[in-house]
Design goal:
Blueprint: E1 5-6, H1 17-22, E2 26-29, E3 32-37, E4 52-53, E5 66-72, H2 77-92, E6 98-104, H3 115-124, E7 132-135, E8 138-141, H4 144-154, E9 161-169, E10 177-186, E11 194-202, E12 205-206, E13 209-211, E14 214-216, E15 220-221, E16 224-228, E17 237-240, E18 249-257, E19 267-276, E20 282-287
Parallel strand pairs: 3-4, 5-6
Antiparallel strand pairs: 1-19, 2-3, 5-7, 7-8, 9-10, 10-18, 11-16, 11-17, 11-19, 12-15, 13-14, 19-20
Length: about 290
């Protein structure tokens, strides 16, 4: 599934989701026993030993998504006036083609978890004010139209890699954690070091926003970057130090503690593949997309 995942209602018993993908357990099935797991050979986590499908299959569509970001702030009047509408309109109007992320700049939604990430992203996309927008490798300033042109052009390209996710809310020893399984698939031979970054976004989050010259205490913000599940800051963790061959799949799995103040019904788990260049900077490769 090449989409972001919301978490409410995805409760699994006792074992983490990552365990069910790699160590299927025996369950009762019609008076007998069977091995629980993904039984579809077309999935990236197919278990040939599984005899009972547990709805854990992950699929990665061979398509090129884009990343579309907005630099914004709750103290910024134009951000609430037209910036937010332009951003949500672009994301909602291009479902299945992009990952939309809202970067909050030193405002009421900035936290120790997301502030350092935004600082790192700011070095890649050097914004000159708020609101500003960027798509893939290019800063487009206040032009959402230009950003969508980049997204449209990218959607016509054949992807080199793709990423899919499976999540659940932990129970037992993983209570208070989000179980995340990420799979990266090579659609072509790739070279160089590649990183996987998994982020938490919040949607439908209410926080006072300046709209023009007035403050709206009931303003609803969407796709706000809240933090990262992977270590390594904005660019995540190295998963392929030297690239890999076509058809290869890399699996990342972890149980990540989440902020207990979060409303999990409003949290998206999303992923981006970054390629590390020889100068130490990172370029966008592919991503999951907002539902």
């Amino acid at each position: 599934m090449n989409t972001s995942i919301t978490l409410k209602g995805l409760f699994f018993v006792a074992l983490a989701a990552m365990a069910s993908c790699t160590d299927p357990s025996l369950i009762t099935d019609g008076g007998g026993t069977g091995v629980k797991g993904c039984t579809d050979p077309a999935s990236v986590n197919f278990n040939p030993d599984a005899t009972v499908d547990d709805a854990s299959c992950v699929y990665i569509e061979e398509k090129q998504n884009s990343i579309f970001v907005k630099f914004t702030a709750t103290w910024c009047g134009p951000c609430g006036d037209w910036g937010a509408t332009a951003f949500t309109g672009a994301v909602d109007g291009n479902k299945g083609k992009l990952l939309g992320m809202s970067f909050q700049v030193s405002d009421n939604l900035t936290t120790p978890a997301n502030g350092p990430l935004v600082d790192q992203f700011s070095a890649k996309w050097a914004y000159t004010g708020t609101p500003n927008f960027a798509a893939n490798e290019q800063m487009t300033g206040t032009s959402v139209g230009q950003a969508m042109g980049i997204v449209d052009a990218a959607s016509q390209l054949a992807p080199k890699m793709g990423v899919g996710l499976r999540t659940s809310i932990g129970a037992g020893p993983n209570a208070g954690k989000i179980n995340i399984d990420a799979y990266v698939k090579n659609f072509a031979d790739v070279s160089g070091a590649h990183h996987l970054a998994i982020y938490f976004l919040a949607r439908d989050i209410v926080e006072t926003q300046k709209v023009g010259s007035t403050n709206d205490p009931n303003f609803v913000h969407h796709h706000v970057l809240m933090g990262a599940a992977t270590s390594g800051g904005a660019w995540g963790e190295e998963i392929l130090p030297n690239g890999g061959s076509k058809g290869a799949t890399t699996h990342w799995a972890r149980a990540i503690a989440y902020d207990p103040t979060w409303d999990l019904d409003k949290i998206e788990v999303v992923a981006v593949i970054w390629k590390k260049k020889t100068d130490g900077t990172f370029e966008f490769v592919n991503a999951t997309n907002n539902r």
